[in-house]
Structures are given as structure tokens and as C-alpha cells.
Amino acid sequence: MDMDFDRNKIQRILLNLLSNAVKYNYENGEVTVTLGKITANGIENVQIQVADTGIGIKDENKDKIFDRFFQRTTFYHYLYRGTVSVCIL
User: Fold this and answer.
1) Rg for the chain (alpha carbons), in Å?
2) Of 39, 72, 84, 89, which sees the most CB atoms within 10 A?
3) Which residues of 2-33 are buried (b: 16+ CB within 10 A; e: fewer)?
């Protein structure tokens, strides 16, 4: 599969996702990284999924996860578990 992407940006995104998955996880929690291939509009793409058993991201904040410097943590926020996917098109 040929892919055209910015290696440094993907590396920074993955490092950030993994760092947050560990940082905001519960003690003895788990972090899972899944790599898959999906097809959209007849084009093969790579999907990278980082999931953890930690505090998670509230639905209303998920559209902001790639906003620069966005951070939202409240007690209510700690009640959710998280999964974040990155699809490289």
C-alpha cells in the first residue's frame, strides 16, 4: 500500500495520543493500539486507533481534540473511558 503523509506530523499525533492515554489512565489500566486497513471511496486507507481504560473524552469535546491547547478536565469528565482514532487518508 502506497501512502502519502507527513511522517513528522503523524509521529507527533501518535506520541501525543499515547502520552495522554498513559497520563490520564487509571492505575493498572490498559492502553491498546490497533492498526487496520479500511476502504473509503474505493481507496485503501490506514486507521490507527488508540484506546485506554482511563478517563476518556466527553462527546461534546471530541470535535476539539485536535484544537491547539484544548484541555478539559472536570470530575464528571473522569467518569468516561476513551478511544481515539486517526484515519490517514
Assistant:
1) 14
2) 84
3) eeeeeeeeeeebeeebeebbeebbeeeeeeee
Residue 59 cell numbers, joined: 462527546
Residue-wise pLDDT for 24-66, tens only, equals 899 999 999 999 999 989 988 889 999 999 888 888 888 887 7
- pLDDT at residue 76 is higher than 60: no
Helices and strands (H, E) in the chain, number of each type: 1, 3
Please report the pLDDT score of residue 72 as a whole number: 56
CA dihedral 20, 24, 29, 34 (to 10 degrees): -30
pTM recorded for the entire structure: 0.65
Q: Residue written as cell 503523524?
A: 10
Residue 79, sorted as left (phi over 0), alpha (psi -120 to 50) or beta, turns out to be alpha
